[in-house]
UniProtKB/TrEMBL annotation:
Signal peptide: none annotated. One of its GO terms (biological process) is DNA recombination. This is Integrase/recombinase. It comes from Cereibacter sphaeroides (strain ATCC 17023 / DSM 158 / JCM 6121 / CCUG 31486 / LMG 2827 / NBRC 12203 / NCIMB 8253 / ATH 2.4.1.) (Rhodobacter sphaeroides). Keywords: DNA integration, DNA recombination.
Length: 296
């Protein structure tokens, strides 16, 4: 239906597809927004219809009502509003078919502010106990911990990324997230052992039960959720391992630039999230040590 939300979503996704083809946007962004906006169109409305049938000049209250259908998943709800807002910005600034953005100014439901919850030492132990050496799940955890890469990059890594430098294997890859710096890191023994321990070897380290690479980040993410559930771990994601790795590096005294090199960050302020907290704890430990010398 012309001028419906479904119609606007279709035009916006076609625009995003053209940007991906021109290498001006990431395929991951396209997939995420396609999934979110299509589910948005299928959401039921109070009058028995769907949001896709609404006129795209919907009021702000309609977007809030849609967001609230995902209130039990605040992170996803906020990402939905973000996608809707991006679509309307395009409709106003480039397509010139809209004059107002109904998603502007909608407050976030997720008040945590810290993003994904970092895995604890106990989480890591429980996961490895549930998924022993030689399993795909164990390899996934090892790959994430010893590369600190994003899940979409983890599913793509394989022997083609291995480079021999003076007898030492290095992993080199360009992260898929737009604006990320290239990564070149030594392939540490635990990761090398886990990768070579797989009974089935393929184009990528991580393979499905059918022996094929995971087709999307979402397919691997879904598998990770099942592995976590089997280990009794709740509320944790692959990004939480990346965060845990960064915090461990900061606690070990790694500099901001060292963490940037491993995490593919190009802006220091991103890595500061991890180094500042660790530096404060180290300073506090030094201060406490000084207090301990006082006679009391």
């Amino acid at each position: 239906m012309t001028h419906s939300i479904q119609w606007l979503v279709g035009r916006y996704l076609t625009h995003l597809e053209s940007l991906v083809e021109a290498k001006l946007a990431s395929l991951l962004t396209l997939r995420q927004r396609r999934s979110q906006l299509r589910r948005f169109c299928e959401m039921p409305t109070e009058d028995g219809g769907t949001y896709g049938e609404y006129d795209f000049r919907a009021p702000r209250s309609a977007i809030i009502a849609a967001r609230d259908q995902w209130r039990h998943k605040p992170g996803e709800a906020d990402n939905l509003v973000k996608s809707i807002s991006a679509m309307y910005r395009w409709a106003i600034d480039e397509a010139e078919i809209a004059t107002e953005n109904p998603a502007v100014g909608i407050k976030k439901l997720n008040k945590g502010g810290g993003g994904a919850a970092a895995w604890t030492a106990d989480d890591l132990k429980r996961f490895r106990e549930a998924h022993p050496f030689g399993t795909t799940a164990h390899l996934w955890l090892t790959l994430q911990m010893f590369t600190a890469c994003r899940i979409d990059d983890a599913r793509k890594l394989g022997r083609s990324n291995e480079i021999d430098r003076g007898g030492t294997l290095w992993l080199e890859f360009q992260p898929g997230k737009k604006g990320s710096a290239p990564v070149s890191i030594p392939m540490l023994p635990p990761l090398l052992k886990a990768a070579r321990a797989q009974k089935v070897q393929g184009a990528t380290y991580l393979l499905t039960a059918a022996g094929k690479p995971f087709s999307t980040a979402e397919s691997l993410r879904n598998r990770v959720q099942k592995w976590c559930a089997a280990a009794g771990i709740e509320g944790k994601s692959s990004h939480g391992i990346r965060k845990a790795a960064a915090e461990l590096l900061a606690e070990a005294g790694c500099t901001q630039h060292q963490i940037m090199a491993l995490m593919a960050h190009t802006q220091a302020k991103t890595s500061e999230i991890y180094t500042k907290g660790a530096q404060r704890r180290l300073l506090a430990a030094d201060a406490a040590a000084a207090l301990a010398t006082l006679e009391w």
